[in-house]
Amino acid sequence: MAGIPDHKQDEVGLGDPMVRFHSFLHGGTSSLLSTLPTLIVFPVYKTVFRQQIHNTAVHLAVEQLFKEGPVKLYRGVAPPLLMKTLNGTLLFGLQDTLVHQFSLSSQNTISTSALAGFGAGMVEAVVFTPFERVQNVLQNSQNDRHLPTLKSILVRLNTQKPALGYYKALLPITARNALGSSIYFGLKGPLRTVVERQGLSQVVSSFISGTLTSMAISLTLYPLSVLVANMQAQVGGEVKGVMACWGTLWESRQRSVALLYRGGSLVILRSCITWGIATAIYDKQQKREG
Prior knowledge:
Solcar repeats lie at residues 22-101, 108-194, 201-288. By secondary structure, the protein is an all-alpha fold.
């Protein structure tokens, strides 16, 4: 997810390749700087993962992690840190590039930014699904015995067909990322403008708009994240399609929306911190270059 390009940017700026390069650079930088909050809230993320996989209450998930100790607590932290930085680089830069391409034939509008976000989200899914797959396998404690290290996981996934290995759950990930990026790019700019009218600074306005947009996306698309986590956590076993996996998940949640959203409040907290900071930093850098 990323910020909407400045609507006041002139045609010369839009056509400058360096402007596109700066979008990639600023996206990577803002995401890299937001990795500190990612480290801090990683235990929160792992608590959510346990709730998604095992359908446990938050206090039981916390007790499980506490008993396992700090070493296992941060097992699986490397993929999200690497993915966070590369993700921001690709998504921010690619969305800005697509907006420029679309603007050559039509006016740069909110719908243009949203459409560019949708396209960037699809590319993001193809590139980063393997990262998410490895991360989910690492975080599943049931894999600790037969897949104890990152190397063992990579070796095992290499023996699988792409659709069952690195690219398992590609379809729901693509739907989640494309829709999420589209919503984010379409709403962030207008929300920032509304907040700025209240007399707040540009940095604060960007942080708030990024936070509110991320919150809306997390709540709306949370069921897809739960589905992805359950599809990717295991290696091997019975082969099921997306709809069959959804049916199994829905039954395991006792056909309850409340149980399906278990852990959703923690997702909101994590998204507010990481994307709020990343958005504020990115917008600040873009304004400085403008």
